[in-house]
């Protein structure tokens, strides 16, 4: 029996975001009235309640705002990844995204660390945005 990893639940609000991820683009919603950039995607703007929205491509760069190193797997399918890092990354454009930090030793992760998006392409046609350190002075993953 294989441990299948959980997949994002795609709905009308998040469909365009996940389609962008499949094309290796981070797409953010921008309010057509007040200009507020937002993530996660939503039907209405949380600032002005407008339903007018369009998508903009994000740079894929940001900084770690906060993080946790998991030593116990959230789901049994992540057991082989321990320890792993779950982080809140502030994108250069302003919105925050919950993600994983990859490409460095979990002990090297720190708040304010500059990161860039990398893509975890899954078999079921989903690409997950994850982030790795931009600076080369962080230790590589031990694999």
Please characterize this protein's 3D structure.
The structure is a single chain. A five-stranded antiparallel β-sheet has the order 6-5-4-7-8. Strands 2-1-3 form a three-stranded antiparallel β-sheet. It contains one helix and eight strands, in the order H-E-E-E-E-E-E-E-E. It has two domains: 10-57, no CATH class; 59-143, OB fold (Dihydrolipoamide Acetyltransferase, E2P). 17% of the residues are buried. The protein has 143 residues and is mainly beta. The longest helix is centred in the N-terminal third of the chain and has 8 residues, at 15-22.
Strand order of the largest sheet: 6-5-4-7-8
Report the order of strands and helices: HEEEEEEEE
Which regions are unreliable across 5 or more consecutive residues at pLDDT < 50? 138-143
For the record, the CATH class of the largest domain is: Mainly Beta
- Number of helices, where a helix is a run of at least 4 consecutive DSSP H or I residues: 1
Characterize the biggest β-sheet. 5 strands, antiparallel
Report the span from N to C terminus: 24 Å
Q: Give the tally of β-strands.
A: 8
Task: Give the helix level as a range of percent.
Answer: under 10%
Q: What is the domain tally?
A: 2
CATH architecture tag of the largest domain: Beta Barrel
Q: Class by helix and strand content?
A: mainly beta
């Amino acid at each position: 029996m294989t441990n299948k990893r959980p997949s994002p639940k795609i709905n009308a609000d998040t469909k365009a975001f996940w389609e962008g991820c499949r094309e290796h683009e981070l797409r953010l919603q921008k309010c057509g009235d007040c200009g507020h950039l937002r993530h996660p995607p939503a039907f209405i703007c949380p600032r002005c309640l407008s339903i007018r929205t369009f998508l903009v491509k994000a740079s894929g760069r940001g900084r770690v705002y906060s993080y946790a190193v998991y030593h116990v797997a959230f789901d049994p399918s992540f057991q082989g990844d321990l320890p792993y890092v779950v982080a809140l990354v502030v994108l250069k454009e302003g919105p925050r995204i919950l993600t994983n930090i990859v490409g460095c030793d979990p002990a090297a992760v720190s708040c304010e660390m500059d990161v860039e998006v990398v893509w975890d392409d899954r078999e079921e046609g989903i690409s997950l945005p994850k982030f790795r350190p931009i600076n080369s002075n962080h230790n590589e993953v031990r694999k």
